[in-house]
Amino acid sequence: MNNLIHRDAPDGELSSSNHGQPKKPLPAWGPAAAGNDARQEKLPGNAQTDGAAQPGEGVAKTVVSGPIADPIVRARNVYLYYGNAAALTDVTMDIPRGQVTALIGPSGCGKSTFLRCLNRMNDLIDNVRTTGRIELDDQDILDPTVDVIDLRRRVGMVFQKPTPFPKTIYENVAYGLRIAGIRKKSVLDEVVETSIKRAALWDEVKDRLHDSAMGLSGGQHQRLCIARSIAVDPEIILMDEPCSALDPRSTTRIEELIGELRGDYTIVIVTHNMQQAARVSDYTAFLYEGVLIEFSDTTRLFTTPAVRETEDYITGRFG
Amino acid sequence: MKRQRGFWQKGEPFVWATGAALAVTLSLTVLLLAVVSWNGLGVPWPKPLALVELNDGSQLLGQHVETESDAAAGVQRVKFNVANREEGAAFVWIDQSQIRIQSLPADAMVVERETNLNYHGFLDELVTPGLDVVPDGSVRDRLAAALDAVRSRTRVEVAPLKKQEETISRELNDTVKYQKVEVEYRAKLLARASREGTDESRLLADQLRTLEARESELKQRAFQITQERTGLESALRENVAVFRNAAGQQRPIALVDIVRFHCPNQMGFLAKCGHYTMKVWQLLADDPREANQDGGLRPAIFGTVLLVFLMAIACFPLGVLSGIYLGEYARDGLLVRLVRVAVNNLAGIPSIVYGIFGLGFFIYLIGGSLDQWFFPARVDAGEPVFGRGCILWASLTLGLLTIPVVIVSTEEALRAIPRGVSEGSYALGATKFQTLRRVLLPMASPGMMTGFILAMARAAGEVAPLMITGAAKSAPIPVSGEFPFVHLDRQFMHLGFHIFDISCKSPNVEATKPMVYVTTMLLLLIVIAMTSIAIYFRNRMRTRYQIRSI
Hints:
Order of helices and strands of chain A: HHHEEEEHEEHEHHHHEHEHEEHH
Radius of gyration of chain A: 20 Å
Largest interface: A-B, 32 and 25 residues
Radius of gyration of chain B: 31 Å
Shape of chain A: globular
Shape of chain B: flat
Distance between the termini of chain B: 43 Å
Strand content of chain B: 5-15%
Strand order of the largest sheet of chain A: 1-11-10-4-9-8-7
Number of strands of chain B: 12
Oligomer: heterodimer
Number of strands of chain A: 11
Largest sheet of chain B: 5 strands, antiparallel
Order of helices and strands of chain B: HHEEEEEEEHHEEEHEEHHHHHHHHHH
Helix content of chain A: 25-40%
Largest sheet of chain A: 7 strands, mixed
Structural class of chain A: alpha/beta
Helix content of chain B: 55-70%
Structural class of chain B: alpha+beta
């Protein structure tokens, strides 16, 4: 893999080895991105390593601000195709343990797709093919022999639209435990209570745990879904635009909650809202058209972005 | 230009069109219900019995049925139900101009009889040699008392004998007869294998002799009991009530033949209500009489409900499982799409085609094979068990007919669930089965119930396939106190078939017309009742598993 493949080598080894489709060159990056040369000069200087020399180690083609000490997930050269169309191209990144990592980028850039790779939710879609390696604690989770059920217990997920089950609040939170075969009432009671408390929902629902969850508000639904994920004690919680269907007040609560969960859980959050990414995350990754453009700690990415595209995107000049 | 947009583009005429279309369909439905219930509900109500004197001096005693005006001839004609079938036509048309006087004599009586339907006349006297009836009181009171006395004598003396006869005939016709069939068949097999004279054939011959002895013994006993009973009955038959018709002819009617009587012209409103209730009860609880022209509908009601019930047991699990496979497991491809098209088209096949299929597949192939394997003797004797129309095959045929509806609605219900819900379950580490069982199926259950309701409503009203697969003009209810309690190998009565039978196949179409309406109304009521129950459960599921859009 050579670096900067995303813009300079549309017909490089990538396309010939994988799907034989000529890769489209990136479009112009808005009005400011007039010159290709400027960016080409800028990028190699900021890249941490030269990807062509060390594929699979560190990062290739992506601008990364610094090595991550103890990553919980190492994604290496991940490609994902819907049929013949590539949705992710050579994504390589480390996700730091116990931190909040935000994935930003314009619609359709593959950030949700990448998120769904981490608990293999893409398996549910027909005609999806994933290559590369995603290691969760040294185990390649893309390996077909991996127990997906077990993986999903370790990597929980919260969706864009809150999806409470048509059950009681209690049963919603206990769902993950029940399907895992836990029937003991004392265990269930305890886990349900701590999970709801951790999701900052306890005071609102403690008197109606056995009422239908459908009666809660949208923001409460989302916190219920977070409580539901926490209940199975995952290591990672994936959040796919968790606030995009919520009002500002509920959004604030969820953001506070993310802050409270940091440290105990590794959180990967996809968001369209750059302020939100800046507020809640420790690290931020910017993706465009299936390619990871830049990945660094949030402060640096938002204050001194290394790549022109990132800057254009976060300043709103494009996307 | 501007006005045109205001009128046409606002869609005002379209609103009218949609509203009018709805109004038309609604009023047609209401009209249907009104016609059926108007004609049906009035049937048990006692109608006045008019004594009509005609210009030529003749008299008749009848209940007004309808008036028809013949515009061409300029006359009005009235139809009377004069009953008394043994004296001539039960329904007569009289020109309005022919009627001289019409009165409502208080003592005119409608007598419901076991045979020949109703009798209209006046009670002259009672001849009760074998009964001690109090001689005082009005003739009517004495008739009532005499009827009670005859009935209690029948109950005490005749009924036990009848019961014995039934027991014997059941043993004769079910047990002994089929044992004989079995033994004879085995003997025949031996004979065919030319192994007569062996121990086995001697044993069979012994058995046959025992059975024949038992048979003749039973027949002997039955004969004795029958004789005893007819003796008692003919003694009871000597108790008669002598009636006189409008023309003054006397007619004695045996008290045992009288089901009940009433004098409609002197009944008050409450009495009429009582009579109405009693007739409705009779309709629900009695067996039909006189080739379905009179009496109750109990076996038909029971048969209809049992049929739909069996149909549901057969088709609902199968349909739901197929729907789940199509909706959840099958990968979308050409084959699955073809299957889906085929399932949808299955719902459009005429029901008589299913009937023919049921006859060919269930009765001849499956039933025939079952008989070949398990009851070869019965086949040999020409009395198949499952190889003929019965409630089992009829309900399976109906199940086949309604299964597409269940499949389609199950699949649709599963597809209507937002994808996020199942993903939410998978994300918690649930397997596909756990997701289906704990989340998707409960959420889809109201939709499945809708399919179930449609299937039930269709099955309850379907007649054509039943005519070929087991509905009978007259049959006892297929449930008894004997093992296996529900006799799936029996023929059954069905309200829909009953309507067809009494409206088209009856010897006396005019007389059964009220029954047609009553039966139709009852069929409608049963369908509505069954679907209402299902709708109630569906609504409960809906509130329980509501999917709120967020």
